[in-house]
Amino acid sequence: MRSIEVSKTIQIPDDVEISIEERKVTVKGQKGTLTRDFSHAPISIKLEGKTIRVWAEWPRKKEAALVGTICSHIENMITGVRKGFTCKLKIVFSHFPISVKVENETIFIENFTGERSPRRVKVMGDVQVKVQSEDIIVQGINLEDVTQTAASIEQGTKVKRKDPRVFLDGIYVNEKTEGMEE
Length: 182
Description:
This protein is 20% helix and 42% strand. The protein is built from 2 helices and 13 strands. Strands 11-12-7-13 form a 4-stranded antiparallel beta sheet, covered by helices on one side. It has a 3-stranded antiparallel beta sheet with strand order 1-6-5, with helices on one face. A 3-stranded antiparallel beta sheet has the order 2-3-4, covered by helices on one side. 26% of the residues are buried.
């Protein structure tokens, strides 16, 4: 039996400004501004003072699940503009020393398993990538962009045509945290 309404609320911190315009949510904070469009989802979003209410009337199973998903996205946006997100990756090699360079919006992974041409990974969105000896630090205010960039770097060093139990070389996600290092 379907429920009449599924509803969730989100408390807005004092140092964050939120505006909602036809299911398009804009979050402003000290780190920056994020905008996301939820017009594809059959749910309602309303700003009521210092709370956001997300609900669906007479929802099916997927629509009820979307209420929680959209609340999580908005909470991640709030966390992003207040603290930011950081992913740390570790460069691991035993056979060939891997070197990583960042130029503009592209990451070059050189000498991976002795390959002559560098592997290229695209940086998603407004994300900063720093290389510190054996670590790569990916930082930004949008969680999806930060984690997708980190995952793309990890996938960019996938071992092909060799035994992955022997060749453990690669770049691996080591740590995911809230907050950005200065």
